[in-house]
Design brief:
heterodimer, A: 416 residues, alpha+beta, Rossmann fold, Elongation Factor Tu (Ef-tu), domain 3, 3 domains, six-stranded antiparallel β-barrel, 7 helices, 21 strands, 18% helix, B: 300 residues, alpha/beta, 2 domains, six-stranded mixed sheet, four-stranded antiparallel sheet, 9 helices, binds guanosine-5'-diphosphate
């Protein structure tokens, strides 16, 4: 079954929960008992409409505050495929959740309140989606019913977004604008009669047409070894398989490969998936491979094609989004997890903080605080075999782990 | 040898996660309930390590009120795959007076499983427990991470979860902590059923339509079993063709009317069905926040 992952972003009250609830309702994804709960809750609050936002709000604390505070996952499907929505909150202090949601998404829906147009939050949402290189962006201009479904207002907002696009660094994004009313259902799943001037697709029609590409774009093949499979049975006495997931490109039997960091050469002998063998496997596949030669390979090593060697260095230049309450300071030490490989790292310097409204960067920075995005120089204790995030998403990102609390404190995108 | 491996995104993701568990933890365990989700997990783990055996044991927290079909199925599966099975009984904790059994109309041993699970984690020193929970099951679960850190008391702190970016999983923990791992987080009920169909995975017979003595309560159909399931005098027993959509504790798992005798029928039924799976679990109806409260206490 094909799955498309979508992230949603919007400021509080832009109507994100309502939109998701509306999509679930119009695609018949709400089960009777959930619908019943929504009807009951809406009635008890005295509404004369269905409050679809109740379909998504999860935790008790949130229900009390009436806002979404973390990443929630919502599932629905059409005849064509399944969808997973990572619902990420919009208020300023939760940049980290948006980064989290966008990191696994093939598309992002950015909500704009038609009355307010592009506000600082919208710029931030767009900035983060651009930083993470999310390929498909849908700008849903919501609450069109409150601006009389005016084409002029819609076009103004389009122009405002276009200005952001012009100053963005990643240029390969496909950006689509849809005028909607989440509350009334206009152009979400069903075409609206109130926007005769709009000739484009409804939100769902557009989603259905998005090509289902791996989040990790096509690039050179990288095979980070997760674990070594050694059956130690009579039948498989000498079997040494390397289990992992293929990023970037495909792998085939007979490919000449190099094992990093040892730089040993070998050839792919077999590609196993469960009790079958394959001639080749595509990126995204979790497989177990064996090599022609009896070489020493362990977890964290990376197998690449012999003519596609990544960069190697102990110094990195990265853009980091900070996700922890304890600020990131120069000279501090962390664990750095690059895919499935772990090294120790020291922060050499923090060079700048990027303004998420595209207004540039501030130098003279002493630390990165929660939700700051900045440029940082790092040193690692062992050479890292990496690609820039621009070239190869899978091999160009890492997380920083606080050695005291063990928490994931930040995410980094390696610059070229 | 086949030509090109067709990949299935959900399956790849689950296998990736299971590999991470084996690599990052000293003493993982797979929590096995005998239900379709944990049976699916076993298949995924089998695939992940083939041709080696699954390198960790299964743990079954037995409420003592399981459907006998489930237990029989469990024992056959373990035998066939040559797995290690650990069983810990809720009954033992009740007998020792450590937990108190609920009584009356809605009595269930579901809550009591938590204690037994935490005891087993401590007894064996498990640092990672793989479970079959899915985010589509319940609203509170929608926010659960794939690696979810629990403290010494099995508590889940939903406000202080580690961000999970891309597919990088951070399993670093302190002594006494453990991680609950959910490889099929992103699967829906239909995804699981379709997978069982496609893979030809065997499941306990109670998932298929069969004749059974039942009674009705609150508009739901309950298995009539005088030993385990409390029944009022006016709740009359009759026979009906039913099947179960989950195979939890007998006392809190409702049946649905069904003519789905084979897997293809079940998949079709799920595709067309309009009652969510947990709607058929009575203890969630007690309160909307039920799951969240139980999770904070360490329930799966
Ligand atoms: N008139 C109108 N109101 C809307 C629309 N979408 C959402 N709302 C209302 O805006 C408020 C905030 O919506 P909600 O979905 O909770 O926003 P969230 O904070 O972004 O999740 C609620 O009162 C909704 O009923 C819309 O398209 N038109």
């Amino acid at each position: 079954m094909e799955v498309l992952k979508i992230a949603t972003a919007g400021s509080v009250d832009d109507g994100k929960s309502t939109l998701i609830g509306r999509i679930l309702y119009d695609t018949n994804s709400l089960t009777d008992d959930k619908l019943e709960a929504i009807e009951k809750n809406s009635r008890s609050k005295g509404y004369d409409y269905l409050d679809f936002s109740l379909a998504t709000d999860g935790l008790v604390a949130e229900r009390e505050q009436g806002i979404t505070i973390d990443v929630a996952h919502i599932y629905f499907s059409t005849n064509k495929r399944s969808y997973i929505i990572a619902d990420t909150p919009g208020h300023i202090e939760y940049t980290r959740n948006m980064v989290t949601g966008a990191s696994t998404s093939q598309a992002s829906i950015i909500l704009v309140d038609a009355r307010n147009g592009v506000i600082e939050q919208t710029k931030r949402h767009f900035f983060i989606n651009n930083l993470l290189r999310v390929k498909e962006i849908i700008v849903a201009v919501n609450k069109m019913d409150l601006v009389n479904f005016e084409e002029g207002r819609f076009n103004e907002i389009k122009d405002q977004i276009q200005q952001l696009v012009d100053s963005a660094s990643y240029k390969n994004q496909n950006i689509t604008f849809v005028p909607i009313s989440a509350l009334k259902g206009d152009n979400v799943v069903k075409k609206s009669e109130n926007t005769t001037w709009y000739t484009g697709e409804t939100l769902l029609e557009h989603l259905e047409k998005i090509e289902n590409k791996d989040v990790y774009e096509e690039a050179q093949a990288r095979f980070p070894v997760q674990t070594v499979i050694r059956p130690k049975t009579d039948e498989y006495h000498d079997f040494r398989g390397y289990a992992g997931k293929i990023y970037g490109g495909d792998l085939s039997v007979g490919d000449e490969v190099v094992i990093l960091p040892s730089e040993t050469k070998s050839k792919i002998k077999e590609i196993h998936f469960f009790n079958e063998q394959f001639q080749s496997a595509k990126r995204g596949s979790s497989v177990t491979i064996t090599l022609e030669d009896n070489v020493n390979v362990s977890r964290g090593d990376m197998i690449v094609k012999a003519n596609e060697i990544p960069n190697v260095s102990k110094s990195l230049n990265a853009t980091i989004c900070w996700m922890d309450n304890n600020p990131l300071k120069p000279l501090s030490k962390y664990y750095l997890q690059h895919g499935v490989n772990n090294v120790a790292t020291k922060i050499e310097s923090i060079d700048s903080i990027l303004a998420t409204d595209f207004s540039g960067e501030t130098t003279e920075v002493s630390e990165l605080n929660l939700n700051d995005i900045g440029k940082v120089q790092l040193k690692v204790n062992k050479p890292l075999f990496y690609d820039s995030y621009d070239e190869n998403k899978g091999n160009g990102a890492f997380i920083l782990i606080d050695s005291q609390t063990n928490t994931t404190a930040g995410v980094g995108f390696i610059n070229g | 040898m086949k030509n090109i491996l067709e990949n299935n995104a959900l399956e790849n993701e689950a296998i990736f996660i299971i590999h991470e568990v084996a690599a990052q933890f000293e003493k993982p365990v797979l929590l096995f309930s005998g239900g379709k989700d944990s049976i699916t997990l076993v298949r995924l783990a089998q695939k992940a390590f083939y041709p080696a055996k699954i390198p960790f044991p299964l743990l079954h927290v037995d409420t003592g009120h399981n459907f006998p079909e489930t237990i029989e199925f469990r024992d056959n599966l373990v035998e066939e795959l040559g797995l290690e099975l650990i069983v810990r009984n809720v009954q033992d904790n009740i007998d020792a007076g450590r937990v108190k059994e609920e009584t009356g109309k809605y009595a269930s041993r579901n809550m009591l499983q938590t204690e037994t699970l935490l005891d087993a984690i401590e007894e064996f020193g498990f640092d990672a427990c793989i479970g079959g929970a899915r985010r589509d099951e319940e609203k509170a679960r929608a926010k659960e991470r794939i690696f979810s850190v629990r403290d010494d008391f099995g508590q889940w702190d939903e406000k202080n979860q580690r961000p999970e970016v891309f597919d990088m999983l951070n399993g670093r923990i302190d002594l006494g902590q453990n991680v609950r791992v959910f490889p099929i987080s992103n699967w829906t009920e239909l995804d699981v059923w379709s997978y069982i169909e496609k893979e030809g995975i065997e499941i306990p017979s109670i998932y298929f339509a069969h004749k059974r003595p039942v009674f009705e309560r609150d508009g739901l159909i309950w298995s009539a079993n005088d030993e385990y399931v409390y029944r009022e005098n006016d709740e009359l027993v009759y026979e009906k063709i039913v099947r179960f959509r989950t195979v939890g504790d007998m006392s809190c798992t409702a049946a649905v009317e069904s003519n789905a005798f084979i897997i293809e029928d079940v998949v079709r039924e799920i595709r067309e069905s309009k009652i969510s799976e947990r709607g058929a679990r009575i203890d969630d109806k007690r309160s909307e926040a039920a799951m969240e409260k139980r999770k904070q206490q360490g329930y799966f």
